[in-house]
Amino acid sequence: MQKANDLKEYREELRESLDNDFLRTTLDNFAVAYRAGRANAFKGMDVRGLIDDIAASKDEAGRNSEALFQEFKENAEAAGVHVHFAKDGDEANAIITRIAKDAGCRKIVKSKSMTAEETLLNHDLEDAGLEVTETDLGEWIIQLRHEGPSHMVMPAIHLSRFQVGDLFTKVTGSKQDAEIEKLVKVARRELRQKYVEADMGISGANFAVAETGGIGLVTNEGNARLVTTLPRVHVALMGIDKLVPKLHDALRILKALPRNATGQQITSYVTWITGANECLAAEDGKKEIHFVVLDNGRSELLKDPLFSQVNRCVRCGACANVCPVYRLVGGHKMGHIYIGAIGLILTYFFHGKDKAKNLVQNCINCEACKDVCAGGIDLPRLIKEIHARIQDEDGHPLPSFLLAKVLKNRKLFHTLLRAAKWGQKPMAEKDGFIRHLPMIFSKEHSFRALPTIAETPFRDWWKENRPEVKKPKYRVALFSGCVQDFVYPEQMQAAVDVFAANGVAMEFPMDQSCCGLPVQMMGETKASRDVAAQNLRAFEPNAYDYIITLCASCAAHLKHNYPKLVMDKPALKLKADAFAAKVMDYSTFVNDVLKVEKDAFRETGEKATYHAPCHLCRGLDVHDAPRRLIEKGGMAYVECAEEEVCCGFGGTFSMKFPELSAELLNKKLNNVEETGAQTLLTDCPGCIMQLRGGLKARGSKVKVKHVAEILSANRK
Amino acid sequence: MSSKETLCQKFKEKAELVSAFVTEIDSEDAALKYVIELCDKKEACQLLASGCEADLSDDAGALCDAKQTKVIAAPGLNKEIYKKLAAKAKKSGFDCIDSGMRDHLAGIDIGFTYAEYGIADTGTLMLDCPGEEMRLATMISEYHVCVLPKSKIRANTYAVEKMMLTRMKKTPDYLAFITGASRTADIERVLALGVHGPLELHILLLEDN
Ligand code: SF4
Ligand code: SF4
């Protein structure tokens, strides 16, 4: 659970996680194994299509949730089940406590239910004098340790076999070895005894099917079947998000859920309970069944045009499985009760702003979660939006406020950048790095060297050197982004060289400015809108075939976010749509549109590896083009492990969480160095800044370049 | 291969991937023989495999002591087959029961059932068990042996959707998809079988054209 009061305390907590070697190794191994397992489980299936179908069906269910609840209730009641509606967690807990009291229950066995974690049900039941035992092995372990879950599907993933062995020694009163097989058997016997004694069973539900009034439960251990069979009373607690109209909708989700959660094709057990079943422990031979359907803010969420998509979550936990930040710090630091990307969002809605305010800043915006989500939820966007909302309510921190102010005024921003060039003079070295970090950076930032501002920005160079292209094949506008304009103009120059040689006429609209992603990342929505409007005014999309940028982050932001940012200004929105449609990244343009050929470049045969920027591979779904260009450009491409995993830059993220950024970078660079390549290529100046700075700090010989630079250098 | 054979193969392949034991048989007698032999082969101290050898708390330990002979539970069989099975069990010195599962919560050795359908693309058994005895037999048994007539194998869950709905609408209903043995990966993500339910799942594919 999240306890930190402010960002400082939160960062201290994060450091503890970073120092936990066991946790780090487990999560690393898991992340790698998960990717392979998932790919295998979905092999040959149309995953995108399936996710789209799930999203559409859940959206529809969300729109009709009230009617669905009525239908579910009627059908369930007709089959002898009692149905309750709880508006919040306290009410749900009170209902369940009363059911237990009325039925004279004393001992309860529970099978896993995230919803019960959300309402902190066990506390209330125990306060009422009831004995509650979790029967899911992982849940039982953390219950015995008085902890919260650290993963939605594997709640005890943070513990070692030795810790579990010690725990079981305490529980059984006799010494237990740390052998997993044996520990599992001990749990089997100990828990079997609990089922025998229990008079009430509590479960969650993965599906509440309106057309039958029944529920579906997805488990591997089989405990849900025992919990819903042996005790004479059964209570199932579920959020209204579990309602689906038809059995078919549930079966469809079932295709994705286990595959996405653990890479299984299906879980060992899927249990469908409809109506008050036979129970030989009950006086009348029938089980007393209650369905408690929980709102707790969900219906409010459903009304929100942006956040209603949260209803699509099927609680597979995949968004945590792929999150590079979760992988570093684990669930107790990456969520309150619900963890991972969805956890950051649900924490805000279910547990409040105070619990969420630090967590939401700990997202690097790499989009790995969005890419894998079974419901196709745009998780990073929602996380950023919550960050912005919290700042609007709580006031904006000074740095973010200042950056917003500066970026809104292009002239001021560019003047400051030019001034910085003079300011840095005493600290600059000839190799393009700053020798000593300026005072505003603390020691934690020394994991990478920072670049100096270039002598001549691209915009000044352009004025003098703009090439004339006769009989152009294409007309394009260049969007440089601030880093390439002011720090790495040579990357833009390299692109201009190859473009001119291939019959591309270019424009560089002078009124363009920073794309605005940094302020968006800092939760400054207003500034991010203003900057977008400025840039849109600077470009005349109809005059070009394409708008090309060499920065993956700019490209993704221009393409996907601009139309959303100016949604409320109809005229600008039209322009933004036209603009977005023309935005293209460098590699796609050169490989797919210009279709450059191998024989146009000198073959050096030098080994080069690649880093895939998040906003290129996931943001724009570009995978092949840059790798093809590396080979066409005369280099020998060697694949790097975890090539599509974030390098830890994340713009302002690396300023706020330098320790995490350093760790992500560290992993990345280890993988890079392992390839034995002398050159590392990528498609984003931000990544280049991070990677180059890290390699410099390590004293490595590996050179980092933009793909555009080698094409220009090797052009015949 | 006929489409039935293809489905059968697929089912077998998928079920074996999740560590189910799949055997093709050509008669119900063969199924009974399989059960008796399996029960015979099981450890003399039946519960060994499931944790009684471990140092347990006193209460859980007492539950282990409650069991004396090997037990085969076969609720829901048709009378004739049940009679045959019971006779064979008796000859081998096992108890055979079709009710009273609650008196055996320490565990029964073998639960013997028939599946309603098989789902090929995941190797899943579909069992409808509104009756409690049947449900318990498939859960508290150490080995679950289930007969699946080949003619009942369907391609995927959508193909059994109608059947499921018919059953669900005749409430109450308790329907289960069972795929492989009970499993957990909760400790260090290491796969361990039989955490609450059966340690082994044996599927007997019955030729029934
Ligand atoms: S965008 Fe990346 S860092 Fe943020 S929650 Fe998703 S996976 Fe984690
Ligand atoms: S948000 Fe998506 S990936 Fe995360 S748990 Fe929910 S469905 Fe799974």
Automatic annotation (TrEMBL), chain A:
It comes from the Bacteria. It holds the Pfam family CCG. Residues 303-333 form the 4Fe-4S ferredoxin-type domain. Coiled coil: none annotated. The keyword Cell membrane does not apply. The keyword DNA-binding does not apply. InterPro entries: 4Fe4S_Fe-S-bd, 4Fe4S_Fe_S_CS, Cys_rich_dom, FTHF_cligase-like_sf, Helical_ferredxn, LUD_dom, LutB/LldF, NagB/RpiA_transferase-like. NCBIfam families: quin_L_LdhH (NF045670). This is (Fe-S)-binding protein. It comes from Pseudodesulfovibrio portus.
UniProtKB/TrEMBL annotation, chain B:
Gene3D superfamilies: NagB/RpiA/CoA transferase-like. It holds the Pfam family LUD_dom. InterPro entries: FTHF_cligase-like_sf, LUD_dom, NagB/RpiA_transferase-like. It comes from the Bacteria. Residues 9-206 form the LUD domain. This is LUD domain-containing protein.
